[in-house]
Design brief:
Elements: H1 4-31, H2 38-51, H3 58-65
């Protein structure tokens, strides 16, 4: 069974790179004018979920924060694609 040291040796540099990428994204958002939409709110919810582990794993909490939890299908799709976060203002 691997130790925490083994996990650090294997995955730390990759996780470090991803954190720097997220910090750069947040810096970009700060530099520009205008209002962010629901995706940025979902991003913040996912960050909070990652920092406060609860009953579910961090990965599951982040995925749930960024997933549409509705179970009823919409009558007709107006686009083909996904946005990456639920639009809670629209009821999703």
């Amino acid at each position: 069974m691997p130790s925490k040291q083994d996990i650090l040796d294997l995955y730390f540099m990759d996780a470090r790179c991803k954190l720097i990428d997220i910090a750069a994204f947040l810096d970009r958002m700060d530099r520009f004018d205008g209002d962010a939409d629901y995706r940025f709110n979902g991003f913040h919810e996912a960050l909070d979920a990652m920092l406060k582990p609860g009953e579910q794993s961090r990965a599951q909490a982040v995925l749930n924060a960024l997933s549409d939890q509705t179970v009823e299908p919409i009558p007709k799709a107006i686009i083909q694609g996904a946005f990456g976060a639920p639009n809670k203002q629209a009821g999703n």
